[in-house]
Design a protein that fits this description.
Keywords: Membrane, Transmembrane, Transmembrane helix. It is a single chain. This protein is mainly α and 197 residues long. It has one domain. Helix content is 72%, strand content 2%. It contains nine helices and two strands. Strands 1-2 form a two-stranded antiparallel sheet. Helix 2 runs parallel beside helix 7 and helix 3 runs antiparallel to helix 9. The radius of gyration is 21 Å and the shape is elongated. The two termini are 24 Å apart.
């Protein structure tokens, strides 16, 4: 629990929005700009699938890709793109909440609850759904570093990490490039929002 004197000060100053956000907001210690930048960091982490795949052991690369894995389509690239979409929607939504909050002079209690609610929705979408997608993608990409035996034992149980027969399959390089470019743009937006705050 935070400092009660701080909350009393917020009430006396008429800062209901800050009070409601501090007491009921998800990850309220972070400003909206910091949350947007957090989305960009997750996007940069997602783009790490490219070097993870490039440096797979040669035996795994030859067996499953026949060449450079970065230029091979894999099914988990769809999961990577889904994670990118979640993080982009989250960052965009948080940016809209921040812009709307800045456009208001006085914030009524009902507006404060709405703003905090929307911020929580977009924060959860990015830092739960997006984070899980990024972690799952990195785990699937890195399974080859455990060796052929690990991949074959997973295949026997029905998990094929380097399967490429999926309608959204694309090369790892393309999916990683999309994640990196999106992360760069989201980072710039987060920095801009921080200056507005």
């Amino acid at each position: 629990m935070g400092d009660p004197n701080k909350y009393t000060e917020m009430v006396l100053d008429g800062r209901e929005y800050e009070l409601i956000r501090a007491q009921h907001g998800l990850l309220s210690r972070w400003s909206i700009a910091q949350k947007v930048r957090g989305c960009s960091y997750l996007l940069f982490a997602a783009s790490a699938t490219v070097p993870i795949m490039v440096f797979l052991p040669p035996a795994v690369s030859q067996t499953y890709f026949g060449g450079n894995p970065a230029f091979s389509p894999v099914a988990f690239s769809a999961l990577l793109l889904l994670s990118v979409a979640c993080l982009l929607v989250s960052a965009g939504g948080l940016g809209v909440v921040s812009a709307y909050r800045s456009s208001l002079g006085e914030v009524s209690e009902s507006q404060a609850w709405s703003l905090v609610g929307f911020e929580d929705i977009f924060s959860g979408f990015g830092f739960v759904t997006g984070l899980l997608g990024v972690v799952a993608t990195l785990v699937l990409a890195g399974l080859g570093h455990a060796g052929l035996g690990a991949i074959e034992s997973l295949g026997a149980s029905g998990v094929h990490p380097y399967h490429d027969e999926f309608f959204l399959s694309m090369t790892v390089l393309t999916a990683g490039g999309v994640a990196f470019c999106t992360g760069t743009n989201v980072f710039v937006v987060g920095t801009f929002l921080e200056r507005l705050e």
